[in-house]
From TrEMBL:
Residue sites binding Zn(2+) 1 per the record: C427, C430, C467, C470
HAMAP family associated with the record: PriA
Entry protein name: Replication restart protein PriA
Cofactor note: Binds 2 zinc ions per subunit.
UniProt catalytic activity: ATP + H2O = ADP + phosphate + H(+); Couples ATP hydrolysis with the unwinding of duplex DNA by translocating in the 3'-5' direction
Length: 719
């Protein structure tokens, strides 16, 4: 009798009879559940205690390597940490379509021992391809394409034994990466950092390193050395990137460094390729995976290194379904695997900075920029002193600086972190703002797309000609700037310049975005108008000026992380300028140049900023000095959500006993999404409190209506 964890929403694993010949722990199996066959994993020996005659038998054992104990441990611990059910955790680990299909076979071709009876041009091309790629196997199509011959030429060579044909499973290993190929000659600072990382890898034990250095300081080059060290030891490595759009540049860098492309794992990868990747990761036929956060749940055979690039990036926090932070899960996973973690960033998260200060993480700093380029000079434009015409957002001073760059054949970036044309659309007759019918959010005009869009639920509608409220005609007007409006202004101010707008709405696919980025990088635009999409890692060698339209934008609002986020974003954006030979400059339009965060950004004194920020969080007992959980209660009826919150607040015994406090219920930051009313509660606990236990005891002890949805977010991003 074995217990099998399935992906079905049951509260515990079920007992099944093992098939003839037994079954290993961790084996992937199909088991009967009601009338269906479902996917499961043998989780351990059975618990027994029920009628053996009624027990059902495992239907099939799937021909994939069993889930290793380390992975089962990881899922259990990650589930405990995030208060996620085990079936939901298992679903994360089995996101490979076709996993349950039998392996299909295909014919592949490699170099044989025999000699062809006579050599033709076509034949010698085939043999040359096979020789060049050593032991690599090709499918018939790949080989005929590579050699430029028809398949009959290859078949002829097979008959004579010069080419060897064999049947193999369809999912082929990835081409070998060669860690022994030489990398770039490292600077002294890079070499020192790389040596330290290598030492960590060679210890074969867990350790986390925060690799800091401004954009362009050569961090990527350094962690590629860690990847090389890991591969050289025969272990697998994974590099997590925050944006799929960035992976193209990175993949070609890997190819240059190691002679072949790594496996990829993100939403843009085809189904077939996913299945292949999942299997090859399990079997060791993939040495390096480059991917999004979900790559953490792949079944590595022997994981030796996880790199989290741009570790502060908020996209590492999954905000749907299982709420986890990939950075923290990477550390957990690595600690179970005896692997090293490298957290790379120009502007680390406060969490990582504090962990490094406390000695929990090693810290490596790459101080200077690689090569000759200098850090951009950062200055404020005091908007109180600028003479701003109505309806304009580019100050005269910024305008003349942009003009200089354009005339010099350089590029300028105008940064505004607001999608769409204008944040508010207002009726001049009745004063009404157009809101989303389903959310507590304004509809945002996207003039380039000729629609109004809700940024919460994605609802969109054509821009109405009359006010939906008072039906006045032609009275709707845009209030405030978005990137599209900024593009319009730039077009008027710089009629001769070529202007490119980079905002996620304007690109239907990652590929379209990639193309736009390439066009810009190779000089296809003079002025870039962009949202935070441009802050992330793109390389624009001609860019010498960054103009931040509204540096104060992120400072308002009640979020405790506002300062941290603004600081990171501004530095990331400024870091786009001056990456090649030409020095860069960043100008920040602000109405409050004396604000401490703005001052810290301008002075460039990171340590001072982090110290001040850490101090204020510590005083408030806020993360990372205290622990938090966010609870969202949502219901189609507002009263129901509030009543449930009030009930929970009244029965907070387990929370108080643990020494923690409940705040709320209060309307969630977005109080209605897709018609669901949302109420938020926050639990705040001193460090060292078993927060998850207290929260689950608390929630488990209150009977809530079935029509209510509850989600728990441990370590919420905003609080
Ligand atoms: P970061 O990851 O910190 O932004 P990168 O590693 O991408 O920095 O380096 C910035 C640029 O400098 C890249 O174009 C990279 O190829 C180049 N570079 C970095 N280190 C070296 C080196 N040791 N030799 C030559 N070029 C380098
Ligand atoms: Zn909406």
């Amino acid at each position: 009798m074995v217990s099998v964890l399935t992906t079905q929403p049951l509260d515990r694993p079920l007992d099944y009879l093992a098939p003839e010949g037994g079954v290993a722990d961790g084996a992937f199996v199909m088991v009967p559940l009601g009338p269906r066959q479902v996917l499961g994993v043998v989780w351990g020996r059975g618990l027994g205690g029920f009628d053996l005659k009624k027990a059902r038998r495992i239907h099939a054992v799937l021909p994939v390597p069993p889930m290793r104990e380390e992975m089962r441990d990881f899922l259990t611990r990650a589930g405990d940490y995030t208060l996620t059910s085990m079936p939901a955790m298992l679903r994360l680990a089995t996101r490979a379509p076709g996993l349950t299909n039998p392996p299909s076979m295909q014919k592949v071709y490699r170099l044989g021992e025999g000699e062809p009876d006579r050599m033709t041009d076509a034949r010698s091309r085939v043999l040359a391809v096979l020789e060049e790629f050593g032991g690599l196997a090709f499918t018939l199509k790949e080989l005929s394409d590579a050699a430029g011959v028809t398949s009959s030429v290859i078949k002829g060579l097979v008959k004579q034994g010069a080419v060897f044909e064999e049947n193999t499973p369809r999912d082929l290993p990835f081409p070998r990466l060669d860690p022994a190929l030489p990398g770039k000659t490292l600077s002294e600072a890079q070499q020192a950092a790389s040596d330290t990382l290598r030492e960590g890898i060679n210890s074969g034990r867990y350790g986390t390193t925060l690799l800091r250095g401004i954009t362009g300081s050569g961090k990527t080059e350094v962690y590629l050395e860690a990847v090389a060290a890991c591969l050289a030891r025969g272990r697998q490595a994974m590099v997590l990137l925050p944006e799929i759009a960035l992976s193209a540049e990175f993949l070609s860098r890997v190819e240059k460094r190691f002679g072949a492309r790594p496996a990829e794992w993100h939403s843009g990868v085809t189904m077939t390729e996913r299945r292949r990747t999942w299997k090859m990761v399990a079997e060791g036929g993939a040495q390096l995976v480059v991917g999004a956060r979900s790559a953490l749940f792949l079944p590595y055979r022997d994981l030796g290194l996880i790199v989290v690039d741009e570790e502060h990036d908020s996209s590492y926090k999954q905000e749907d379904g299982v709420l986890y932070n990939a950075r923290d899960m990477a550390v957990l996973r690595a600690s179970l695997a005896g692997a090293q973690v490298v957290l790379a960033s120009a502007t680390p998260s406060l969490e990582s900075w504090v962990n490094a200060q406390a000695g929990k993480y090693r810290r490596l700093d790459l101080k200077s920029r690689f090569g000759s380029a200098a850090l951009p000079e950062m200055r404020a434009i005091d908007m109180r002193a600028e003479d701003m015409p109505k309806g304009r957002w580019i100050s005269p001073r910024l305008q003349s600086e942009v003009m200089k760059r354009v005339e010099n054949g350089e590029q300028a970036l105008l940064f505004l972190n607001r999608r769409g044309y204008a944040p508010v659309t207002l009726c001049r007759a009745c004063g009404d703002q157009i809101e989303c019918p389903q959310c507590d959010a304004r509809m945002v005009e996207h003039r380039f797309l000729k629609r109004l869009m809700c940024h919460q639920c994605g609802e969109s509608m054509p821009i109405p000609e009359t006010c939906p409220k008072c039906e006045a005609e032609g009275t709707l007007s845009a209030v405030g700037p978005g990137v599209e409006r900024l593009t319009e202004e730039a077009t008027e101010l710089f009629p001769e310049a070529r202007i490119a707008t980079l905002s996620s709405d304007l690109f239907a696919s990652a590929r379209a975005l990639k193309q736009a980025v390439e066009t810009i990088a190779t000089g296809g635009a003079d002025i870039i108008v962009g949202t935070q999409l441009v802050a992330k890692g793109h390389n624009f060698p001609l860019l010498t000026l960054v103009g931040v339209i509204d540096a104060d934008l992120g400072l308002h609002g009640s979020d405790m992380r506002a300062a941290e986020k603004t600081f990171q974003l501004m530095r990331q954006v400024a870091g786009r300028a001056g990456r090649a030979e030409k020095p860069g400059e960043a100008l920040m339009q602000t109405f409050q140049p004396e604000h401490p965060v703005i001052r810290a950004i301008l002075s460039g004194d990171e340590e001072e900023f982090w110290n001040a920020e850490a101090e204020s969080r510590a005083q408030a007992g806020m993360p990372p000095f205290g622990r938090m959980a966010g609870i969202i209660l949502s219901s189609e009826r507002a009263e129901e959500a509030f009543e449930a919150g009030t009930m929970l607040a009244r029965h907070d015994g387990p929370i108080r006993q643990a020494g923690a406090v409940v705040y709320g219920p209060a309307p969630a930051p977005i109080a209605r999404i897709r018609g669901w009313h949302r109420v938020r509660m926050l639990v705040k606990a001193p460090k060292g409190v078993a927060l998850q236990r207290a929260v689950s005891d608390w929630i488990g002890g209150v009977r809530l209506p079935k029509t209510l949805r509850l989600s728990v977010d441990i370590d919420p991003q905003s609080f």
